């Protein structure tokens, strides 16, 4: 109806001549006879020129169409003229319609004459670029007259010498019923959501009965209201676990409001001031309900491994994240550490050798954790190696200290030597990262049959799958803290060498900023154990000293800092600086009153490196994940290849705007 009304009201060429003749008549009525005659002569000349041009173009089109039809055999000509599908021939260069059959006239509103009409006027949703690209099928459906069509076509040329000889022939297949059925099928696909009260123990369990009942009642009421929006099935699986089954058509609504259930549940606070939090794991696009439930379980595990209090959607290809901005709190017990220590001991004892590898450009936490794993292997009597590739890293000083320990002679190998030492029974231990693309050597990871992962960073969309052991605790201060806990169960502190204890202590001090950030009771227990093992904090402190030039560079970076979004400091260096210097500058910016988060950007080998730090509410990992980085809520980093510092700064501004304006966390990555 809208298209018909548009065609009725659209000005035609004949209407223009009628208006011009009316002006001639008005001029004559006003007594301007000579002017009226002159105007009439001009209008007549224009009309004659238009008719001549139209006749010539009509004749050329007829000749062009005749040449096309004459080049066909009789069967092809008959099938074209009597095609049961709507058919239109047009010039792709000018979009002018040359010829249509009656069926196409019918779907466009019954217009009798199509000559000198543009196809884009008849079907605004149609784009002919796919024909010029050599394709025979339109990549999408075209809507016309309230119906949906799949368009097929081809290109032909009547005269090979002239470019204007191109002619496109398209066939329009009505797929409205099929498309509607497909849309209904997709809209009614099942979606399974698992909702987990991820801090049940801290917020609810230890309260008085009346308080616990009131809090649970309030939480369940909010969960029920959220589930009722989708008209789905909602039931309780366990004391802190719920299931919701609904149709996919309601999922977009949940995405649009950024899974407001997260904020709603957080409003329930116990007398101690601890808010309740919920993690939502959603499975979609599965072939069976069993696979759907597995996707939902993986989503919940992903949410918990990233700190909880967020929603994760898992389909067969990727993860999608929402929320996850709240600060992580320590909610782990010693049972898991004891179980992991037992499993780790069994894996080490059964291995022919242990190879330990961290992330690219390892820091003190990665190298210290690697040394701790080697200490376990040394006590088990298993050969052990640490991967150290060529090039400068922030942990070069620690590498040199470890190399001077007599028991570590020949332990440091490059990736190629490590691959030569590996066999079918070798155990590769990846520390301080859980992402396969960030390890020191991807080939070494792929070549080892047995892999163990020890990490404290929040899990990303891509992570090392199928590991024989995955000791992943995002609530821990550092990977060295996790390895220290394993050591506490597998060996006596006195069996640990002083150099090994200091290596582990350096990782603790690095990630906790000298025990001032991200510390818990277990952090200090680990530090006390390392101190009893002979670790000297004064020796560790010397590892963090920087030269005078680096100190000047650090304060030069701080001097260039600017405030963005009230409490975020961004410092940009136009020239390369050391990674340790940049990280320390980001830390130092947090000491300025009113600064809640800081970012330092600098160029390095054709890429831009970003170091992010945060004190409280701002989650820098969520922000830098949108730029391809990672880390944890208080400390994160990113590397942006092929961009200038100015371009990277603009991308950081966009990521900050999305974060503070409540947009989706990051972006999904294919897994």
CATH A-level architecture of the largest domain: Alpha-Beta Complex
Tell me, rounded to a whole number, the average pLDDT: 84
Physical arrangement of strands within the biggest beta sheet: 7-8-6-9-10-11
For this structure, what is the CATH homologous superfamily of the largest domain?
Answer: inorganic pyrophosphatase (n-terminal core)
Number of helices, counting only DSSP H or I runs of 4 residues or more: 26
Q: Helical percent range? A: 40-55%
CATH class type of the largest domain: Alpha Beta
**Are there runs of 5+ residues with pLDDT below 50, and where?**
1-11, 663-671
Number of domains: 5
Please describe the structure with a list of short key phrases separated by commas or semicolons.
671 residues; alpha/beta; Beta-Lactamase; Alpha-Beta Plaits; six-stranded mixed β-sheet; six-stranded parallel β-sheet; 26 helices; elongated; disordered C terminus
Compact summary:
The protein is an alpha/beta fold. The protein has 5 domains: 13-64; 71-183, PAS domain (Beta-Lactamase, 2-Layer Sandwich), CATH 3.30.450.20; 191-323, Alpha-Beta Plaits, CATH 3.30.70; 334-543, inorganic pyrophosphatase (n-terminal core); 548-660, Diaminopimelate Epimerase, Chain A, domain 1.
